[in-house]
Amino acid sequence: MGKKIVILNGSTNKGNTSVLIESFKEGAKSPDNEIKCFHLQEMDIRGCIIKGPNAAENACLFKDDIDKIYPFYKEADVVVIVSPMYFWSISGHLRCAFDRLFLMEEIDENKSAVAKTCALIISSEKSSNMHLDPVQDFYASILKETGWGDVGKVFSTGVSDIESKSNPTDVEAARKLGELIK
User: Fold this and answer.
1) Across the beta sheet with 34-39, what order do the strands follow?
2) Is residue 158 within 8 Å of 152, Cβ to Cβ?
3) Are the C-beta atoms of residues 32 and 1 closer than 8 Å to each other?
4) What is the DSSP letter of 64?
5) Distance in angstroms (rounded) separating the CA atoms of residues 8 and 94
6) In the chain, where do the E strands start and end?
7) 73-90: string of b/e by CB count within 10 Å (b at 16+)?
């Protein structure tokens, strides 16, 4: 049985992260799998302003491009988080989208997204644990708080500009990560 895979791309440009995404998609490609990639930098997704003090009233007041993601996210078996590392974390585009998606989770009476698995793909100029630990902690918190399973992680480090493509070992690791979702 195929998987519905949602890729949330938090990169602000087409470069290292795009190479990793394409490799992941190649690995996950199957006649049974459905893959949908959202390039968040091309979407209008704003921070949320909520209506009331309890979860039932916490529908966001904004109607924007997050509404294009909701139906796919809700049905997804796998969520792939992809971002360059900015200030020891994921990009603001991705963080904003996650804030909105998790709000949806809070008000969803069926809690349809609790049976998901998740994968993380990060590109980074730095490679030390000091720089990568905050992103890994963030990812671990997502898994813990949502109860999602972990498909795996790829950290492509030592990439300092958009033109220096991720190293072949990291590109292959992203493809193999995609293969785990068959």
Assistant:
1) 34-39, 4-9, 78-84, 117-124, 149-157
2) no
3) yes
4) S
5) 7
6) 4-9, 34-39, 78-84, 117-124, 149-157
7) bbebbbbbbbbbbbeeeb
Select from 23, 25, 31, 19 the least CA-distant residue to 7: 25
Looking at the DSSP bridge assignments, the partners of residue 84 are: 123
Q: Quickly tell me which residue has 């994968």 as its tokens.
A: 119
**Paired tokens of 88:** 């020891």
Taking only the tens place, the pLDDT of each residue in 68-82 is 998 899 889 999 999
Closest by CA position to 133, among listed 143, 146, 122, 144: 122
> What confidence tens digit (pLDDT) does each residue in 137-153 have?
999 998 998 889 999 99
Q: Which two tokens stand for residue 73?
A: 């996210």
- 4/16 Cα distance (integer angstroms): 24
pTM of the model: 0.87
